[in-house]
Amino acid sequence: MRELALTGFLAIVFGLGAFYATQHFGAFSIVNLVVGCVALVIAIALGARRLRFVGGRHSRPVILRGLLLIVGALVLAVAAERLVASANIRFDWTFERRYELSPATLKVLAELPGEVSATLYAHPGDPRRRRTRLLIEQLATAGPVRTAESDLGDSPRDEDRFGVSSSNTVVLQLGDRFERVDRPNEATFYEALYRLRSVRTGTLLLLQGEGEGDPLDESDLGYSGLAAALQTEGYELRSVVSAALSEVPEDTDAVVLIAPQRRLLDGALGALRRYLERGGRLVALLEPGVESGVEELLAEYGLATPEGVLVDPASGGAGGSSSAGVDPVAYNYQEHPISKGLNSRRMTYFSGARSFTLRKPRPDDQLSAVVLSSPRAWLSDDPSALQRRFGGLEPDGAPQTYHPLVVAGRYPRDGGEVRIVASGDSDFASNRYLRVLYNLDLVLNAVHWAVERESEITLRPKIRDTIQFPLPLQNSLRTLYSVGLLLPELLLIAGGIVWLRRRVA
Amino acid sequence: MTALLALIRKEFVSLFGSPTAYLTLTMVALVSALIFFDHLKLYNQILFVYSTPTMGGFSSDAIPDHINLWDRVFFPVMETLGLTLIGAVPLITMRVFAEERARGTDELIVSTSLTPTSIVAGKFAVTYLFVTLMMLVSFVYPATAIERGGIGLQHLAATFAGLTLHGIAIASIGLACSAFASSQLVAAVSGWAVAFVLWDFSWMYPFVSEGVAKFLDGISLHPRYGSFAEGIVSLEHLVYFAGLALVALAVSRFAFDLRRVGA
Question: ipTM score of the complex?
Answer without folding.
Answer: 0.85
